[in-house]
Amino acid sequence: INDNEVVDLLSRLGCLLTDNESGWNVKTPSWRFDLRIEEDIVEEIARLYGYNNIPSKSLKTHFIFNSNRSPPHPHKISLNRISTLLVDRGYQEVITYSFVNPKIQSLLHPGRRVLKLLNPISSEMSALRLSLWSGLLSVLIYNQNRQQKCIRIFEIGNRFIPQKANLLKEDLMITGLLSGNKYEEHWDMPLRLVDFYDLKGDVEALLDLTGTTEIYFKSELHPALHPGQSATIYLQHKPIGIIGVINPLLEQKLGIKNRTVIFELLCKRVTDPNCPSIQEISKFPSNRRDIAIVVSEHITAFEIIKECKKVLSNKSITLNLFDVYRGFGIPKGYKSIAFSVILHDQHRTLKEDEVSALISRCLEALKMRFQATLRS
């Protein structure tokens, strides 16, 4: 719109205009309280000039598609996005001190080297934290002593690991815990304490932000966690965190009143998203087979599913665990695991004998690797 016409339109509105190097300074009349920002002025000019008199032009946009699976500069998953997800799942964020009580820390991380302060604020804040667990458990105990029975908290902060030659390694961590009842008291839901799988589901939802399927949990011991109810979290065969139920002996020493489940993740390993690949949806029907096998108690469902995917790697496959049974008919030290196998081909319908042959190959591999037997 011509400059002279803009000046004329604004002057007729009662505005006072003065020129400067970058454009106009506009002083609006006192009765036009709706003209507060630059966009309001632009809107008035367009209204008076006539929307129909402004030429319509198509917006030019440029899209750059990268043929590689991983872009050269992938966008990071923000800490705000991670915090929002946990808040949406019922957690509250806390911020605790980096200085912790060395006695509590020694219970959580026995035998670990700790950096102590020369002039601490108090004896209960005299050591740099090896993990965020000390602070979270202190918050938990504080709230439990004030009759809070349903606690979900998390924190994002640095841990400090002493290295050789007086060096200090800092890692940004995501840590969270559940304690007490799963839900607040409700007339239509029975009260029950949180368990390992409640927190595991929340951690899996957080890890889903990365878009990768190469994450798995492996049962491993930790001195602060309950034996058999703790696991290390792996991404592409590298440990990125740990999850588990607080050891009952530690609960007694710290005065924790309810079952507590806790996790810890390395931030730098969960903020890199995996660029998704796009493929055409198959128009051919899938084939489902349910398999129930008996295996030794120490063999995990993850190992079984991984072996099946390895055998059936040349086909599109979906595996889902839907039942684990121990009891009558199953020998002691063994368990029955049932899972569904869904097969389909992108280019044709699989025949019955092909599906049977693939399932037989899968069962044979499980028998060779795990001495698995088909449950009768």
How does this model look, in words?
Helix content is 28%, strand content 28%. By secondary structure, it is of the alpha+beta class. The strands form four sheets. It has a seven-stranded mixed beta sheet, with helices on both faces. Strands 13-14-12-15 form a four-stranded antiparallel beta sheet, covered by helices on one side. It has a two-stranded antiparallel sheet with strand order 1-2. Helix 9 (301-311) packs across helix 10 (352-370). The model is unreliable at 69-73 (pLDDT under 50).
Offer a quick outline of the entry.
By secondary structure, the chain is of the alpha+beta class.
- How many individual β-strands? 15
The structure class reads: alpha+beta
SSE series: HEEHHEEHEHEEHEEEHEHEHEEHE
Q: Could you tell me the radius of gyration in angstroms?
A: 30 Å
Number of helices: 10
Mean pLDDT: 89
* CA(first)-CA(last) distance: 83 Å
Largest beta sheet: what is the strand line-up? 3-6-7-11-10-9-8
CA-based shape: extended
Offer a few descriptive terms.
alpha+beta; seven-stranded mixed sheet; 10 helices; extended
